[in-house]
Every structure is written in structure tokens, then in C-alpha cells.
Amino acid sequence: MAALLAALERLAPPMLAAAWDNPGLQVGDPQAPVERALVALDPGPEQVRAAARGGCQALITHHPLILTPLKSIRLDVPQGAALALAVREGVAVIAAHTNLDAASWGVSQILAECLGLSGVVPLEPVGNPGEGMGRVGRLARALSLAELARLVRERLSAPFVRCVEGTNEPIERVAVCGGAGAGLAAAALTVGAQALVTGDVRYHQARDFEGRLALLDCGHFCGERPVLEKLAGRLGEELAGQVEFRVMSGEQDPFKLY
């Protein structure tokens, strides 16, 4: 476990995490042996159960199981059920959240690569060169909003992309932020982006930027899911075969279209 935690800290340094965040070991013994680990987006009962059934001693997730101080552990709600199941099954739960967002190779970097952006740099630099929240880069060619939306939907396997129109000019410089990144819209405008691809755009955020910056909401899940394969691969390289890493299959966006 100690080697796994150290490797994760090298790849996604805790110092990059937001002050309100809670990355790192959430459940488990930091000295326990780990031979196999499951990588997933969320730390729910389904993910803990999959880890236990697969013979994994650790579950590494992007979203923390414990983000704010607990007032109770109730087994009739997902968080409490996941905690109890993790303890009962001996599955350690480890989170790499905003530190993975800001890592030089992390969530937003992978999102930018999925969309084929070039000349990519952090939207809000933090830490060492290449580290920071969000990314901004250029498309291979200028696209209309509809064309960019199709590209986003296809590359991220998103069931839908909600769009807010920006200016009428073709879009070439694009900002991205996996997860809920509409708070970076002003920063995107400042660096000359014509569009921001992210998730969880709220109504009033859309109103604030319509006509100025195109907003493409691909959903929280679809914008972050691509990092998991990379995370598993990078951890495997860091630990040189000491731990086997698997990526959770079957995880689904909680939002459904009817």
C-alpha cells in the first residue's frame, strides 16, 4: 500500500489539490499489502463490490468517498454502504481528485488530447510548468458549433452535448475542463478561447456567457471517464509490475435520456 500511495502522489501531487478537497487514502491500512487494484470514477457500493469480487485489495477513484466530515455512517445510503462494504471486504479506497485534474497528464489534458487539440497549455496554471486547472489549445481546423458538438459527442461517446452559442465566428481555440468546469469560462475568454467544453453548466452560467463564449456541456461523467485508462497505465509503469491495475467496466452516467 505504501508504494501505491507514493506512486499516486508522484503522479498527482497532493499539493495540486484544491483547499476544500480530500484526496488520498480514504479507507484502509496504509501498510496493508496490495497485489491488485481497481481504477474507477466513483466510489459507490457497486465499485467496492466489483473490487472485492475481482480480488482487488484497493479501489482507486477520481471522486472521493469522503469529502466533508461525516456526521453518521448509515448503511441505507450509498456512501455509508460503500464505507461499510470496503471495511468488511478489506478493500482500501483511495482518491485522486482535483490533484488529478491539475496534474500535467491528468483529466483535462486527456480530454484535450481526445479532442485533438494542439499547443495545449493549462487554462489556470498551478504548480510546475504544465500543471493547472483546465486546458486550452487549437483544433486542427476551425469548426462551427454544431461540428464541434459532433466531434465532442463522438470522441467522448457522449449521449448528448448541450450547447450555448457564443459568437458567430468559426471555432478554432478551445478550452476544456473535465467535470464541472464552467467556473473557468471567464478564464477561457481571457486567453482568447472561443469555446469551453466541460460538464454541469448551470442555467445562469449559460446566460452569462451566451453570445460571448460557446459552452459545450458533455456531462460530468463523459468528460472525466477517459482519464481512467491512463491512470491505470501510469500507475502500472510507476510500480513496474508490483501491482496489477484494472479499470472498472460497466460504470455508467447516472443521467438517462427518455
Please characterize this protein's 3D structure.
The N and C termini lie far apart (43 Å). Strands 5-6-8-9-10-7 form a six-stranded mixed β-sheet. A five-stranded mixed β-sheet has the order 1-4-3-2-11, sandwiched between helices. With 258 residues, it is α/β, with parallel strands linked by helices. Helix 1 (2-11) crosses helix 10 and helix 2 (45-53) packs parallel to helix 3 (78-89). The chain folds into two domains: 2-99 and 225-247, Udp-n-acetylmuramoylalanyl-d-glutamate--2,6- Diaminopimelate Ligase, Chain: A, domain 1 (3-Layer(aba) Sandwich); 104-218, NIF3 (NGG1p interacting factor 3)-like (Udp-n-acetylmuramoylalanyl-d-glutamate--2,6- Diaminopimelate Ligase, Chain: A, domain 1). The chain has helices at residues 2-11, 45-53, 78-89, 98-102, 107-114, 145-156, 185-190, 203-209, 220-224, 227-239, and strands at residues 24-27, 36-40, 58-61, 92-95, 118-125, 132-143, 162-164, 171-180, 195-199, 214-217, 244-247.
Write out key terms for the chains shown.
six-stranded mixed sheet; single chain; 24% strand; globular; alpha/beta; Udp-n-acetylmuramoylalanyl-d-glutamate--2,6- Diaminopimelate Ligase, Chain: A, domain 1; five-stranded mixed sheet; 2 domains; 258 residues; 10 helices
Question: Outline of this structure?
Answer:
With 258 residues, this protein is α/β, with parallel strands linked by helices. The chain has helices spanning 2-11, 45-53, 78-89, 98-102, 107-114, 145-156, 185-190, 203-209, 220-224, 227-239; strands at residues 24-27, 36-40, 58-61, 92-95, 118-125, 132-143, 162-164, 171-180, 195-199, 214-217, 244-247.
